[in-house]
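pasting for the record
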Amino acid sequence: MVYGILRLINFAHGEVFMFGAYMAFFAMTSFGMPWYVAFIIAILLTCIFGMLLEKAAYRPLRDAPRISIMISAIAASFLIANLGIVVFGGIPVTFPRPDIFNIRIVIGGVSIISKALFIPVITAVVLMILLYIVNHTKTGTAMRAVSKDYEVARLMGIDVNRIITFTFAIGSSLAAVGGIMWALRFPALIPFMGIMPGLKCFIAAVIGGIGNIKGAVLGGLLLGFGEIMIVAFLPELSGYRDAFAFIFLIVILLFKPAGLLGKNIAEKV
């Protein structure tokens, strides 16, 4: 989402992901909210957090060279992660998994935990909502216009700052959904938990075609499937599953640099 608008890799996305998971954790444990209320509150707070991040770290550098914005994004990533250590503490905490996500379902002799079914369903629903917003709403049309050329979009009367803030709001909300689903699968939360998922999100986006929404989802599915197959068929290499992601990235870049669903775009001079 952010790259499609600003041609900027949001290196702080993993930390926004972490923030969403912690907000859901505190909503359930400190305030005793039901899980469904806690998840909604966490998504809303993360959405606001993402908009504040855009306003503080990216908007002042809107007209600066790309390298300046990239450095700001990296600095924001390290700042948020280390602030997480100060605010949340460095000791891992256990995310409370609601019972509905722990139901064991047997299908054809195969036992599946319900969370394994919820995650792809939630992903599909979120993808459909996102595609509808981008392709069938006035704001989505403005987002696509800004992604082509925000200077021309500005001349056409589009409020570029509002559209970019809205894009960060959606991206941050999606990061919160991802962080919550990750916490349901891996319940140990630490402030640096977003680093590897953030890198893998970037890898998945490149594999699918960076800037392409459906491509990012496809890249994530292929990456996850590949890692699972490594563990299933070559268990002695299970310790190298993270390395597989980077090897996969290199192979894709060598043979299809634009990604599976991406398009080659000439760089503006």
